């Protein structure tokens, strides 16, 4: 069993299409198929279920992928540790977040203080972020809710809560708080399903005993516009709406008495992955300073 075989398998497992995986690896599709076939012969098992042009990992393949990810994670950790020992520290940091606004203020300040650091930041849905963290592809995840697990270190950076936002013309706009089931019949403005926060708000509504009557499925920018036009009400976290510019938008914010709407913003990293000095510095900065920047 060779590392090249494992790398080909890892890429194919991620993309779940041999043609696209071969293109990414810059090899021919028959070469990739042959390599995967030899690997399966060596293991005496099938790792993929073929579904037309696509492939899907079976139960055995999923278990094998977990081990392969650990192998490459250990190799990357060894490389980073050697670079630290020899004084050739990497200044690259990889970070995935479920919402870029989670980095508002704090990322700018960190880069101002550490101009030599190169941060590769992406925005992904929660499940993708968790998978990339588990595989060792990235150094950190900054998510809501926090990613936790037996092999994951997690630091809660901020406790937050979801509130109800209504136009000032709404019948409940003069109140300070509300039980969510009181607005079960109101039209809701929600984020589309590929926003991780959508799953949180759907769960909150279910806990209140109803499914929201959705008037608009939008992104976070269009949501503000629809709220201004009084087209519905919305569930939003405080970290998104406690901004100075929102004071002029004729909106009211109501604390939710029930159900519980508290959420946690967490920074997560793999226990087994060696973090470079730059990565450790970034982690410590976020832990110590996060609340100074996010409202």
Automatic annotation (TrEMBL):
UniProt keyword Nucleus present: no
GO molecular function (one): DNA-binding transcription factor activity
Classification via Pfam families: HTH_1 (PF00126), LysR_substrate (PF03466)
Keyword Transcription regulation tagged: yes
Domain of life the protein comes from: Bacteria
Entry GO terms, CC: protein-DNA complex
Residue span(s) of domain HTH lysR-type: 1-58
Alphabetic keyword roster: DNA-binding, Transcription, Transcription regulation
PANTHER family, per database record: HTH-TYPE TRANSCRIPTIONAL REGULATOR CYNR, TRANSCRIPTIONAL DUAL REGULATOR HCAR-RELATED
The family this protein is said to belong to: Belongs to the LysR transcriptional regulatory family.
Protein name: Transcriptional regulator, LysR
Organism (species): Clostridium scatologenes
């Amino acid at each position: 069993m060779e590392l090249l075989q494992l790398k080909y398998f890892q890429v194919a497992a991620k993309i779940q299409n041999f043609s696209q995986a071969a293109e990414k690896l810059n090899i021919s599709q028959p070469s990739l198929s042959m390599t995967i076939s030899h690997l399966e012969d060596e293991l005496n098992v099938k790792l993929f279920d073929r579904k037309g042009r696509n492939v899907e990992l079976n139960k055995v393949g999923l278990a094998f992928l977990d081990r392969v990810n650990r192998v490459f994670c250990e190799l990357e950790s060894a490389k980073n540790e050697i670079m630290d020992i020899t004084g050739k520290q990497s200044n690259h940091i990889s970070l995935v977040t479920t919402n870029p606004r989670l980095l508002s203020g704090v990322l700018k300040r960190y880069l101002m203080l550490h101009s030599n650091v190169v941060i590769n930041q992406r925005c992904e849905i929660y499940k993708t972020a968790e998978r990339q963290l588990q595989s060792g592809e990235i150094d950190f995840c900054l998510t809501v809710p926090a990613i936790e697990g037996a092999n994951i270190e997690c630091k809660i950076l901020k406790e937050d809560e979801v509130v109800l936002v209504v136009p000032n013309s709404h019948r409940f706009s003069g109140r300070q708080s509300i039980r969510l089931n009181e607005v079960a019949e109101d039209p809701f403005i929600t984020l589309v399903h590929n926003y991780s926060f959508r799953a949180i708000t759907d769960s909150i509504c279910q806990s209140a005993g109803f499914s929201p009557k959705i008037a608009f499925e939008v992104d976070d920018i269009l949501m503000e516009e629809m709220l201004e036009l009084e087209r519905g009400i919305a569930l939003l976290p405080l970290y998104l709406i406690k901004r100075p510019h929102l004071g002029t938008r004729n909106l009211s914010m109501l604390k939710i008495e029930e159900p519980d709407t508290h959420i946690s913003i967490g920074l997560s990293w793999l226990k087994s992955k060696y973090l470079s000095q730059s990565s450790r510095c970034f982690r410590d900065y976020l832990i110590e300073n996060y609340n100074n920047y996010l409202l």
